[in-house]
Amino acid sequence: MVDQQLAAQQATLQNGRVATIRPLDEGDRAALLAFGQALPQDDLLYLEDDFQSPEIIMRLINAHQAENWRQIVVETDGEIVGYSSVRRLHGWSSHVADIMLLVSPKCRRSGVGMALAHAIFNAARDLGASKVIVEIVEEQQAGRAIFERLGFRVEGVLSKHTRDRQGQYHNLLILSYHVG
Ligand SMILES: CC(C)(COP(=O)(O)OP(=O)(O)OC[C@H]1O[C@@H](n2cnc3c(N)ncnc32)[C@H](O)[C@@H]1OP(=O)(O)O)[C@@H](O)C(=O)NCCC(=O)NCCS
Q: Is the model's pLDDT at 3 over the cut of 50?
């Protein structure tokens, strides 16, 4: 367990709303579950973790101070509208960090994703990562677009590497960025 150095920040979104970008906290269980419940089927199909499962949400909350893991949320009016995490890998890839990013559908295209992406990128640096990767199911066009805009490039494609909850296989893109 470590004292996480990430401070809360305020940001004004493109829709004029003020958002707080801050580390996930142990008091966020209900808000994070509500965030997961509001996700559309398409998102749920392509997520590694089931954000509608109370057990998964509890696991994320319990890890809010894990040493190799940072989790950041965006909050507006007491509601979580964005979630992002970065986890340092183990062993010979311990210089690599894997990030994920998820924004509530009602808040998309207003800058939440970009603000979160910057915050989680700083968190990856804070974890000491020199390479950052993101795994994106090929169908997640918006995810690919935002990371390519941030300078990530497709490094590999793993064919039929994920299986969604309906049993369909999908290719998985690995996008990467070398820090510094
Ligand atoms: C990807 C995601 C996080 C983007 O969040 P967002 O809040 O809409 O992102 P932003 O509003 O900050 O968009 C920033 C830029 O990303 C690009 N972008 C975002 N969504 C896009 C889309 N649907 N199509 C094309 N470009 C897109 C644009 O360049 C955009 O800038 P612009 O709005 O000025 O054109 C969101 O769509 C999402 O949660 N998708 C499902 C999960 C996912 O794919 N996660 C990524 C893999 S972990």
A: no
Q: Give domain status of residue 2, yes or no.
A: no
Report yes or no on 93 lying in a domain.
yes
Helix (H, G, I), strand (E, B) or coil at 161: strand
The pick from 73, 103, 121, 146 for probing ligand 1's pocket by mutation, whose C-beta has the most ligand atoms within 8 angstroms, reads 146
Residue 114 belongs to a domain: yes
Per-residue model confidence as pLDDT tens digits over 17-46: 899 999 999 999 999 999 999 999 888 888
Residue among 21, 51, 85, 108 whose CB has most ligand 1 atoms within 8 A, to mutate: 108
- Domain CATH code at residue 138: 3.40.630.30
